[in-house]
Write a structure and sequence with these properties.
94 residues, mainly beta, 6-stranded antiparallel beta barrel, elongated
Length: 94
């Protein structure tokens, strides 16, 4: 049980509960005017939180890209890739 106090096997139960949840999530990034290179680090407050997978110039959305970022990064956090500001958009809920 997850709400119970400390007990033997607690780590195993927690690991089983959390399985299937990758430590990173895929997000769509909207870049501010320019495109970084695939493979560039994604930074939050100067610390790496992910990596750019692919980038493209969309005919309506402008410069966009896909990135895998740490699940702990809030969706409203302002990110930077190669000195270019980026806003996140969740692709898949969960």
């Amino acid at each position: 049980h997850l709400a119970k106090g400390c007990y033997r096997g607690q780590e195993t139960v927690a690991r089983l509960h959390n399985m299937g949840r990758p430590p990173r999530r895929l997000v769509l990034l909207h870049f501010d005017g320019a495109l970084p290179e695939p493979g560039d680090e994604v930074l939050r407050d100067g610390r790496p939180v992910g990596r750019i997978g692919s980038v493209a110039q969309h005919y309506e959305l402008g410069p966009i890209g896909l990135a895998a970022v740490k699940r702990s990064v809030p969706l409203d956090a302002q990110l930077v890739a190669a000195g270019i500001a980026a806003a996140q958009e969740q692709i898949v809920a969960g």
